[in-house]
């Protein structure tokens, strides 16, 4: 990315129109009143509330049916706001300058102003600056960080457009900022910056390889049997799942299909005749359209979905993680 983080933000903020300003001010008054506002981001839509208000945050968990030990990411609009909620270190500042606003969440030691409810009882909190003008403006107008998980009912595929948010949680929110379709389509990359090693807690929209190139070091993968579950509680739950079974495979085989009606998604054409198929022209489109494809195919009349395996480098790592967890393996 070019320029400093400040330059990038100034450019983004200069584009807001009067009409948008009125909508943002209205949504900001809801945030300050402790209500829920659905927010667009470059990754997926979020279900936002004042991160510093434990009661408001409680209503996020209730609206989603989210387990209370799965902590939320705090969305900020400036370095100062980040500094007010977590203890920044040099590595964090460097990565912010390099990648914010963008799909990178960093886990750092929390300051006392962050309610335990927001951080799922942990001593750490995750922060990120989303790359979406309306949401950055909303955070700025609210004057507080906004805690936001994805705006779906817990366990369902994440929403990447405003209509899907309405379908899932429409009755439970005060407003939706409609920012169109999400550009990245999978959630942010989450890294732990509290220790000597940088640890990847969740692959996401920013490639691990890009973080490694910037830092000049290897980002560690959580080892089996380590305390990863304690450190990133969200990774323990089945997630992102369509209502019919989903299998991740290289090919649609008879063994998998067993005479049932099947749907296909992937980058290549399937052999045989699925009742529905979605072909992605590139890996970034696979990521962008993954969750919508799950919701479309579960309604296609198929009894199962076969999702084509993809190379798990760069954005592929996030795609494969979402598919694996959707398949319940
Ligand atoms: P979501 O809100 O669905 O995007 O999920 C947020 C992800 O960030 C989950 O996997 C959480 O477990 C993880 N996360 C948030 N805060 C922390 C934290 N303080 N420590 C470790 N992981 C976190
Ligand atoms: Mg989620």
Structure description:
The chain is of the alpha/beta class and 329 residues long. The chain has helices spanning 5-13, 18-32, 54-64, 79-85, 90-99, 133-142, 162-169, 208-215, 228-231, 254-257, 283-297, 315-326; strands at 37-39, 46-50, 73-75, 104-109, 124-128, 146-147, 175-176, 189-192, 199-202, 246-249, 262-266, 276-279, 304-308. A nine-stranded mixed beta sheet has the order 7-1-2-6-3-5-4-8-9, sandwiched between helices. The chain has a four-stranded parallel beta sheet with strand order 10-13-11-12, covered by helices on one side. α11 packs parallel to α12 (315-326). The longest helix has 15 residues, at 18-32. The chain binds adenosine monophosphate (AMP) and magnesium ion (MG). Adenosine monophosphate is lined by residues 70-73, 107, 119, 122, 124-126, 149-150, 187, 190, 201-202, 231-235. Magnesium ion binds next to loops.
User: How many E-type strands?
Assistant: 13
Instruction: Tell me, rounded to a whole number, the average pLDDT.
Output: 94
Please trace the helix and strand order, writing H or E for each element.
Answer: HHEEHEHHEEHEHEEEHHEHEEHEH
Helix content: 25-40%
Count of helices? 12
């Amino acid at each position: 990315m070019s320029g400093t983080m400040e330059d990038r933000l100034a450019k983004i903020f200069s584009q807001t129109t009067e009409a948008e300003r009125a909508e943002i001010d209205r949504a900001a008054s809801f945030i300050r009143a402790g209500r829920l506002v659905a927010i667009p981001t470059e990754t997926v839509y979020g279900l936002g509330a004042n991160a510093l208000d434990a009661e408001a945050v409680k209503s996020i968990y209730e609206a989603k049916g989210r387990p209370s030990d799965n902590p939320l990411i705090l969305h900020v609009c400036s370095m100062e706001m980040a500094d007010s909620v977590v203890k920044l270190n040099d590595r964090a500042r460097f990565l912010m300058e390099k990648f914010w606003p963008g799909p990178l969440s960093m886990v750092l030691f929390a300051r006392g102003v962050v309610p335990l409810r927001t951080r799922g009882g942990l001593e750490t909190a995750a922060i990120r600056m989303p790359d979406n003008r309306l949401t950055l403006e909303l955070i700025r107008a609210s004057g507080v960080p906004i805690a936001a998980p994805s705006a779906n009912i817990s366990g369902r595929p994440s929403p990447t457009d405003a209509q899907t948010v309405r379908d899932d949680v429409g009755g439970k929110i005060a407003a939706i900022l409609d920012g169109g379709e999400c550009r990245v389509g999978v959630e942010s990359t989450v890294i732990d910056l509290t220790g000597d090693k940088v640890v990847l807690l969740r692959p996401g929209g920013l490639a691990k390889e890009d973080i490694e190139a910037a830092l000049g070091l290897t980002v560690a993968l959580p080892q089996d049997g380590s305390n990863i579950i304690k450190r990133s509680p969200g990774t323990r739950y089945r997630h992102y799942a369509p209502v019919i079974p989903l299998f991740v495979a290289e090919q649609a085989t008879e063994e998998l299909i067993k005479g049932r009606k099947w749907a296909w998604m992937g980058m290549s054409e399937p052999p045989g005749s699925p009742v529905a198929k979605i072909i992605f022209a590139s890996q970034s489109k696979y990521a962008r359209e993954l969750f919508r494809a799950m919701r479309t195919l579960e309604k296609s009349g198929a009894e199962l979905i076969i999702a084509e395996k993809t190379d798990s480098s760069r954005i592929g790592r996030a795609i494969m993680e979402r598919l694996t967890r959707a398949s319940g393996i």
